[in-house]
Write a structure and sequence with these properties.
Oligomer: heterodimer
Distance between the termini of chain B: 37 Å
Helix content of chain B: under 10%
Shape of chain B: globular
Strand content of chain A: over 45%
Number of strands of chain A: 11
Low-confidence stretches of chain A: none
Order of helices and strands of chain B: EEEEEEEEEEE
Largest interface: A-B, 24 and 26 residues
């Protein structure tokens, strides 16, 4: 069964304190792993798509990496505006399969 | 380019009623998917439409249905509403240029409250 597990569920950082979010997945034939950011009451905002192990993508303070079993979202020197829920999803047989998300809080 | 739009943004209904939600995809996008988001279950796939045809369907009862029009706009309908249908309903569109699912871009969602 296709499955996505994210950890930790919640993460509190001080501004400037770098960290990583984990996304473990099991899927029969990876056809894409996606990272989204979601602010309260809003729809998910697309961040990255990764297709193959070893692939990396960067955007501002965020960097996503992919292995055969998991993906990491590295946040370098975060700012309070990076506070949000970060969602990981894989392309399953029928639609995207999402993890439960990591709620990130960055304090000044 | 305008993003995915959804109407209405908020809706309050009572049990037993039915509701119709609307989604306009990004211009040029041909695939539209619908998701339900609740605090307990997270984001769950409802169905996907491409070229006016339902291509995939998630594990939801038949009370949940949808359709897509020739301009790619989509609607979803929920009949005989239950309290558990209270959720954020999200629409996502993708170009679907290569015959398989690509990155999906989400709209702001419709918040449905069933009393």
């Amino acid at each position: 069964e296709d499955q996505v597990t994210q950890s930790p569920e919640a993460l509190r950082l001080q501004e400037g304190e770098s960290s990583s979010l984990n996304c473990s997945y099991t899927v029969s034939g990876l056809r894409g792993l996606f990272w989204y950011r979601q602010d309260p009451g809003k729809g998910p905002e697309f961040l990255f798509t990764l297709y193959s192990a070893g692939e990396e993508k960067e955007k501002e303070r965020l960097k996503a990496t992919l292995t055969k079993k998991e993906s990491f979202l590295h946040i370098t020197a975060p700012k309070p505006e990076d506070s949000a829920t970060y969602l990981c999803a894989v392309q399953g047989g029928f639609g995207l399969i999402f993890g439960q998300g990591t709620e990130l809080s960055v304090k000044p | 380019k305008a993003g995915v739009t959804q109407t209405p943004r908020y809706l309050i209904k009572t049990r037993g009623q039915q509701v119709t939600l609307s989604c306009s995809p990004i211009s040029g996008h041909r695939s539209v998917s619908w998701y339900q988001q609740t605090p307990g279950q997270g984001l769950q796939f409802l169905f996907e439409y491409f070229s006016e045809t339902q291509r995939n369907k998630g594990n939801f009862p038949g009370r949940f249905s949808g359709r897509q029009f020739s301009n790619s706009r989509s609607e979803m309908n929920v009949s005989t509403l239950e309290l558990g249908d209270s959720a954020l309903y999200l629409c996502a569109s993708s170009p679907n240029l290569r015959g398989h699912q690509e990155t999906q871009y989400f709209g702001p969602g419709t918040r449905l409250l069933v009393l």
